[in-house]
Amino acid sequence: MKTEDLYQFYLKHRVICTDTRKISESCLFFALKGENFDANEFASQAIKGGAAYAVVDDERYAVSDRYLLVEDVLSTLQDLSAFHRRQLKIPVIGITGSNGKTTTKELIKSVLSQHCRTYATEGNLNNHIGVPLTLLAITEDYDIAIIEMGANHQKEIAFLCSLAQPGYGLITNVGKAHLEGFGGVEGVKIGKGELYEYLAETNGTVFINTDNPTLVDMSRDREVRNVVDYGKGATNYISGGLTEVSPYLTVEWQLKSQEDEAIFTAESNLPGLYNFENILAAICIGNFFKLSPLQVNLGVKAYIPLNNRSQILKTEKNTIICDYYNANPSSMMAALDNLETVPAEHKVIILGDMFELGLDSPMEHRLILEKVMETSANRKIFIGEEFYKLNSKSGEFYKTTSDAFLALQETPPTHSTILLKGSRGMKLESLITNF
Question: Does the predicted TM-score (pTM) go above 0.85?
Answer without folding.
Answer: yes
